[in-house]
Amino acid sequence: MLKWINEIFKFSWLDHLVEKLVENVFGVSVTTQLGSSIHFFIYDTIKIIILLGIMIFVISYIRSYFPPEKTKKILSRFSGVKGNIMASLLGIVTPFCSCSSVPIFIGFVEAGVPLGLTFSFLITSPIVNEAAFAILLASFGIKIAVVYVITGVIVGVVGGLIIGSLHLEEEVEGYVYEIQMGEATIEELSKKDRIRFAIDNVQEIIKRIWIYLVIGIGIGAAIHGWAPAPLLAKYAGPDNPFSVFVAVVLGIPLYSNALGTIPIAEALINKGVGIGTALSFMMAVTALSLPEMILLRKVIKPKLIKAFVIITGIGIILVGYLFNAIAHLLI
């Protein structure tokens, strides 16, 4: 089954088409550094946009059954490990970015959702979403995409469980518990409304993220064509025991999303960088970005932010080493 899906999404027809375009229209051989970069940029852009549109539509249709108010109600019914698992799974199909971290956090706390469950949701949402899955599928194939989703959920579940066990509720700013957001009406949608919602979401998300995508693919194309493979393999390859740790530390101060970092990760991996090293860098950028920490400081105190960064960071590092260790089974 996995082999069959991989064959569908290999896009070999597109690869040959772009190769002819580069050589016949641009007059550059794809075996040269310039031709290789141009081919990478055009091929990845078309391939990712196709898969992105498909995945956003499918997940958006599913997402129409889980508006924020319904998500809060579902999570408020769960506790313990089951609650953390549900929170992480809902994080996959629920819209999330750093700009929405504060209202989502306030809404969950106000609804009585335990702190550990809230963080399982906050950890998983930026790491695992339909856009990231689509690009991972396009860039690395079904095996890596599926394992990435599973490990992203595990990081969210375990991270939320640990934060919940620390009983840091007093590290949430006092005013958050006093906010009364009120009960919102949950609108029931028809099948036609859900399809319209999914189509609108495809248009809105691609319109919002295309610039990150183009920049990321552009950087990836430059790395693909000109970066010295032996040097990258030596210092960031899977045999370097410190590469994953350094990648996570370097990723935290940066700000981007999975869409902009996956094409870069793809180019780095093609140059010999360890899969786990590249993907852990991407996870750190998306889940632990400095702007998100600044926004979260509005609702939680430094001690809880520190716990969130350390616990999530350790989880991402472990995932990176896991990917490096089992890379031979995924490629």
Automatic annotation (TrEMBL):
Principal subcellular localisation of the protein: membrane
Topology in the lipid bilayer: Multi-pass membrane protein
The keyword Transmembrane helix appears for this protein: yes
Keyword Transmembrane helix set for record: yes
Subcellular location: Cell membrane
Pfam family, one: ArsP_1
Transmembrane segments: 48-66, 87-109, 115-138, 145-168, 209-232, 244-269, 275-296, 308-330
GO cellular component: plasma membrane
Keywords for the protein's UniProt record, in alphabetical order: Cell membrane, Membrane, Transmembrane, Transmembrane helix
Superkingdom of this protein's organism: Bacteria
InterPro entries hit by this protein: DUF318, UPF0718_permease
Similarity comment: Belongs to the UPF0718 family.
Descriptive protein name: Permease
